[in-house]
Design brief:
This protein is an alpha+beta fold. It contains 21 helices and 38 strands. Helix 13 packs antiparallel against helix 14.
Length: 777
């Protein structure tokens, strides 16, 4: 994914991409790490499997994840990362870089939208240098440790930096070479900032205001407490790199500070920040960091949190490489959304709203694009974090009250990025799965407003083409670019509205959305066998080429958007003429050439390049539209093909190295797809209580629920060759179905699978074995 404005859709592709082949084998450094994990596994230090450098070998033209090495707690308000890129550059850390210029607070969920509330610290030795280019220092990956709970690097000048996170802060330690001058430079980034220096208290306070999607008076207040006395200090600004020695305070664009410590010192810096006030930043420091006087204490606390979470999804068997990929992905599946609330002196949650700029009581979360994450990341949350998910649903409706619209992509305020109104998917999925912390009437009212209007921001703020959608039954082209994609996703969202209304006895909304949830049928052309763009007069858009990207399709082509009928796969099968032509078309996705017609994009974009490099025909795991497609074989009576292809994609396109993803990681979605698929089931249609069974990667997976119960998937005789399910039992009873209910999992139990190297073509083929579809009711 990447972000660009276009006439109808705020989409994610403005970048040019050349076909740059990239080997996805692990590096020698990573191979060395894998070799050390056998001892780690015996010690149950699961966090050691997670490599936060996964996906960092990315650039403008080709994404292996577009990630940075986040050091953070699960869903923490802030993360911290080494910085190789210039201030303001979306690629804050690139594996190919050979210098580091800072260690920064970050919230970035995609390079295509930048970052906000950023400031950085950089240790400097020798002569004081403050400018980001001048202070940048060489490093090697061999001198780097990158884990969720701990980051360490020794630079070429022999300064060692270490970081461990808290939820709203971080603990850093800088070890300078003996007898070498020791400076720490604070950089205020690329907007107005302010600093105050308190030498007697060994403290710096201040604020930054950087960000694109922020309220007018937005500030992030920080407090940094050092454990060593200051020998000298001052302020500087990064426009002209002008230093003002002995100055104890300053405000302005890019204002920062510098501190000189005793030569050869080892300096700890404990940092907390707040969106509410300087006083709250101080309180958060007291709450989260005061007790940790040594970095080892902060690291141990962070390690315990991550190991506890990883231990709740315990995989057994398989290779060390598989475990490294799994836990690296599980790490990123639990980073976004970011917590945006803080605790007052009474321990009560409250927050500064990124929507109206006011202070409110309760919970708030930000930094997530629902077009990406409604598919797997939020369904995974309903299993792992139902309490948080309940708070999140309250936050969605609070955000709607504060800005007038349901969030679609918050960062931290609303961007309106991409397409669809997928907040209703989150709300309905939560309700269906028993997370009922919100008023469903309020949710439906908010969604109705979303579906019947177009908001001021981006393609997913309200509905582009909403009038045509209701009057014609589809969004027309060229009035709205991405029109076919919009119709398909609006129809799914309307199903979610219908489902929530039906479950809560709201006949008014049930009737309204029951009329439009089948609108996907109006985009299907039986002559070509594809979902196509359609004009206002009802005619199809001319010169159809299923390989052509853009135009009626967002970040894809007709091969990719054929399958976005999550809620009624049986209806899609019927449209296409039955199981046989449906299966044939699915097979063709993998067998046709991996060629690209750049079409309306007029140039290669990175998603195209990633599809070509995957060399799996038109299958494009690197972007969201087809990520559920493989599971659709189960709806048409050939579940063994789902099992085969799922294992191929997991093995071929994912690993834990810097080249670890087949495209943008996208706030946990790419990782959550892998995690759920490796567990053995996937959420094809959020808003229902079903998961579709695939082929688990490991011989055993134990999921420990928040309620203390356990759900175990045992795959006997599982191996890279034995990917096909021969038979299954659930809690000791035969289970021929290709689906699980949410209750089957959260109530605890055992799904036992017998695996083999040949398809079991007589298993899972009865109508009752198919997952949910509207047309099968």
């Amino acid at each position: 994914m990447a972000v660009t404005p276009s006439p109808g859709v705020y989409s994610k592709s403005r970048h040019t991409a050349m076909h740059i082949p990239r080997l996805r084998n692990t590096s020698l450094l990573f191979a060395g790490l894998i070799g050390s994990l056998a001892t780690t596994a015996q010690q149950k230090d699961l966090v050691a499997y997670a490599n936060t450098l996964q996906g960092t070998n990315s650039e403008f033209s080709l994404s292996s994840g577009n990630t940075h090495p986040s050091t953070a707690l699960p869903f923490g308000m802030h993360a911290w990362s080494a910085q190789t890129g210039k201030n303001g550059d979306g690629w804050k850390y690139q594996y190919k870089a050979n210098t580091i210029r800072g260690f920064q607070q970050t919230h970035q969920c995609s390079p295509w939208v930048g970052d906000y509330a950023v400031f950085s610290l950089m240790p400097v030795t020798g002569k004081l240098t403050v400018g980001e280019e001048e202070r940048a220092t060489a490093f090697r990956h061999a001198d780097e440790i990158a884990r969720p709970d701990y980051y360490k690097v020794t630079l070429a000048n022999k300064i060692t930096t270490e970081m461990s996170p808290t939820e709203r802060g971080a603990h850093l330690r800088f070890s300078f070479p003996a007898k070498s001058p020791a400076y720490i430079v604070l950089d205020g980034y690329d907007a107005v900032s302010g600093v105050k220096i308190f030498p007697a208290e060994r403290k710096i306070t201040g604020y930054v205001t950087n960000g694109r999607f922020i309220p007018k008076d937005f500030k992030n207040y920080f407090v940094i407490v050092f454990d060593q006395p200051f020998e000298a200090s001052g302020t500087w600004e990064n426009t002209n790199n002008r230093i003002t020695a002995d100055s104890l305070s300053a405000e302005g664009k890019g204002v920062g500070a510098f501190i000189r410590f005793k030569s050869g010192a080892t300096v700890q810096a404990r940092i907390a920040s707040s969106y509410i006030s300087p006083e709250q930043a101080e309180l958060t420091w007291q709450q989260e960091l005061k007790a940790f006087t040594k970095l080892e204490q902060t690291k141990a606390a962070a390690s315990k949190i991550w190991n506890t979470l990883f231990g709740r999804v315990l995989v057994e068997g398989g290779t060390a490489e598989d475990k490294a990929t799994f836990y690296s992905c599980l790490f990123r599946a639990n980073l976004f959304s970011h917590t945006f609330y803080e605790y007052n002196s009474k321990g009560e949650p409250y927050y500064y709203s990124p929507y109206d700029g006011k202070i409110h009581n309760g919970y708030m979360y930000t930094d997530n694009g629902f077009w990406d994450t409604f598919r797997a990341q939020f369904p995974l949350n309903t299993l792992l974090h139902p309490t948080m998910e309940g708070h999140y649903m309250q936050a969605l409706l609070a955000a709607q009250q504060q800005c007038g619209w349901l969030p679609a992509w918050s960062f931290p305020g609303e961007t309106g990025g991409m397409l669809g109104n997928h907040a209703i998917s989150l709300l309905t999925d939560a309700w269906v799965k028993g997370i009922r912390t919100f008023d469903p009437k309020q949710a439906l009212d908010a969604y109705f407003h979303e579906a019947m209007n177009k908001g001021p921001w981006g393609g997913a703020n309200g509905r582009a083409g909403w009038k045509e959608y209701y009057q014609l039954g589809y969004v027309s082209f060229p009035e709205s670019h991405g029109s076919t994609s919009q119709t398909l996703e609006y129809a799914y969202d309307d199903f979610c509205g219908y489902q929530l209304a039906k479950l809560t006895g709201n006949d008014f909304y049930k009737d309204i959305f029951s009329r439009t949830m089948y609108n996907y049928k109006n985009q299907y052309d039986s002559l070509t066998g594809f979902m196509r763009g359609r004009k206002l007069d009802g005619n199809w858009v001319e010169n159809f080429d299923p390989y052509e990207w853009g135009g009626p399709y967002t970040e894809g082509n007709a091969w990719h958007w054929q399958w976005s009928v999550f809620h009624d796969v049986q209806g899609l099968i019927d449209l296409m003429g039955g199981n046989t032509p449906f299966i044939t078309k699915l097979d063709s996705v993998f067998s046709v050439p991996n060629k690209v017609n750049v079409g309306y994009y007029k140039q290669m974009i990175h998603e195209m390049t990633e599809m070509v490099n995957a060399n799996m025909g038109q299958y494009a795991q690197g972007n969201q539209p087809v990520q559920h497609m493989i599971y659709l074989y189960t709806y048409a009576g050939q579940p063994w093909k789902t099992q085969e292809h799922i294992r191929k994609v997991m093995t071929k396109l994912y690993n834990a190295s810097e080249n670890g993803y087949p495209g943008d990681e996208d706030q946990g979605q790419m990782s959550s797809w892998y995690v759920m698929s490796a567990m053995g089931f996937y959420s094809v249609c959020p808003g229902t209580d079903q998961y579709v069974i695939g082929s688990p990667l490991f011989p055993k997976m134990t999921l420990t629920l928040e309620n203390g119960k356990q759900f175990v998937v045992e795959a006997r005789n599982n191996s890279p060759e034995n990917v096909y399910i021969q038979s299954a039992t659930l809690n000791g009873k035969p289970w021929p179905h290709n689906w699980l209910r949410h209750a089957d999992i959260v109530n605890g139990g055992v799904l036992q699978l017998e695996m083999g190297n040949q398809p079991a073509t007589n298993r899972g083929i009865d109508p009752t074995d198919k997952p949910f579809s509207l047309s099968s009711r």
